[in-house]
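User: Can you write out an input/output pair for a complex, sequences first and structure second?

Assistant: Here is one pair. Inputs:
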Amino acid sequence: MKGKIRIKSYGFTMLVLFVLLILMIGITSTIGSASISPIDVYKVVLSKVPLIGDVLGTDTITPAQHSIIWSVRLPRVLLGVIVGAGLSISGASFQGLLKNPMADPYILGISSGAALGAAIAIILKLETAFIGFSGISIMAFVGALIAVTLVYNIGRIRSQVPVTTLLLAGVAVGQFLTAITSLLMVMYNRDMTKIIYWTLGSLAGKGWNPITTMSIPIIAAMVILLFFSRDINIMLTGEESAKSLGVNVERIKVYILLLGTFITSMAVSVSGIIGFVGLIIPHIVRLIVGPDHRILLPASAIVGSIFMVFTDTIARTVISPMEIPVGIITAIFGGPFFIYLLRSKKKAL
Amino acid sequence: MMSVSAKNLVFGYSSTPVIRDVSFQVDKGEFISILGPNGSGKSTLLKTINGLYIPSSGRIELMGENIERYKRRDIARRISLVPQDTSLQFEFTVEEVVTMGRHPFKGRFEKEDERDRKLIYEAMEMTNTFDIRDRLITEISGGERQRVYIAKALAQNTEIILLDEPTSHLDINHQIDILNLLRRMNQEKGITIILVIHDINLATRFSDRILLLKKGSIISQGTPEDVITTENILNAYGMRAAVERNRYTGHISVIPLEVNKRIRSELNIKVHVISGGGSGQDLINVLYHRGYQLSLGVLNAGDTDWQYARSLKIPLSEEKPFSAISDRAAKKNREMLAVADLVIMTNVPIGGGNLRNLKMAWESLENGKKVYYLEDRDYDEFDYTGGEATALLERMIENGLIVVDSMEQLLRAIS
């Protein structure tokens, strides 16, 4: 593997990725039935900022364009940014924590728990919203948390949580909850379509509300996760080796599981189960920046955002005015890539 | 100065603890090997020393203080561990792995400074990994990876380094390479080395002291000479072994012979062997396992042949260590010779102390017994009696002493 490019400069990498993200937000916000230029998108955003907004000329933008950008496209793109970042950073830290390249944010039963919660909410028609979240979102969030709590307690042996038992418990509980969801779908088949649509994931029609309530806790959790990036690096060398280097392995495991679960559950409760992002983005980023979580985690977050925004744009435009659930698009892109990854890994062996 | 010690250490949750009542003390700058058969608790003991396992009773003391009172980080600043499993699936470079050794000294977002760099580079230089510092840990050989992990431990700059079977998956040249490196670290930097190792001969060659474990207890501790004896090997491993000083390295070495449980068929032939100083070990082993009924003498207590014969419970006539053969020992030997069907003598050098052995062989020859002389060892000098032994041997040859120069020839002759 000589001649492999490893980008080592932290600042440079993050800057490039950040600029790419801003460009991606601008470009994808313009794509759609109403034609809008990227400059207008930035103008609309900046006009909301005090002081800058006053000096900025927004006269060329019609109120209709303004409304499409501000109320329809921008919140959706920003939701994609948050969800993509959250899933990718959780996936990357779970892969590191569990030392398993197949791990994703859902591996500990979050997806099946959330799906069951959402299915129950759909069947029971829980429409009551709470702090701006629908009954479905809240039930999905609760379902995810219950599933992970279950998995954690099954996987725990005394005060320790061995990685293998945790993974197996995740698979077992996940299968079990999925079976119950399937049973519910068979029993209440008039709700089946709605449940399936929910599980395929979508960023459509959520408005500003989830962003304003979710972004601060999710971003805060992501920042705290970064505190543990060097610990994750060292834990990759083995738990006992990490302990002998002064890492409080069991405690850090719990912190990372809590943070990753919190971020993922939040994202899933709003957007449904969007697959593959949290699995493949960390792999792609690892190929470019290497396995050091100090750069892998933040870089994964940004690349995840870019990928999410990109795939969501395809989801809403490719057979417009119809929408394809974004989970299908991520899987269509993610599946072949993952196969490629497996093939190239096999070659390396 | 004491650096780490165990006081009545017990570890294990069940009724059969993995470590039972282990006490020992390691001084600063010592090179200690922990030996013992599989499942004897070697690795567990090592991890308990590092505070990774909390003992169910007793304690580990680090610099005189119970290790449980230290924070993980503070232990990591004093003890480093090279784990048994050094495989790593993630593509860190060698330098990145070595840099991890500085973790216990760094704050969350603190970067490595000049001093850290210096320690990291020194560690890589010493372990000969500097040239591969940009290679990926996933792409280097097992021997190189072991050295990288040792470099990581060195970069940690601790007084004590623990190693869990650092040589177990390596080729013989890499085993020596790693142990030479550890010895250098021990001698040049005064680092206390405690390692778990399978290979007894490597342990005796490199260690100041050895702890020999069996079923979680220390059955012997001390210098290689004190610990590695046929009795202790038989006790710990259930295996008969010859123990001798290696003629090239000068260290105690073990030659595995037979596992205890081997069944042998008895032959109704009584053989008396006259040997000494290890010259009879192979002979005794072969004859014993072919079922000959052996007796030995006269041997000085503590002699290699004596140890080995004792481990096989062969009757023998013995004399005090380093003493000439007394009348009492000679009498017992004559009784054994009287009932023997044949006598075999090795070409052990003859001096004033054991000249009587040669004389008794001569008597047997005169009494009409078949006496064989096995001349399969190289000794610089045979005669330390000023000619008396040589003259006697020549007379014996004239009178029918059968000289053979290999074990095969001997076995053919006596069967």
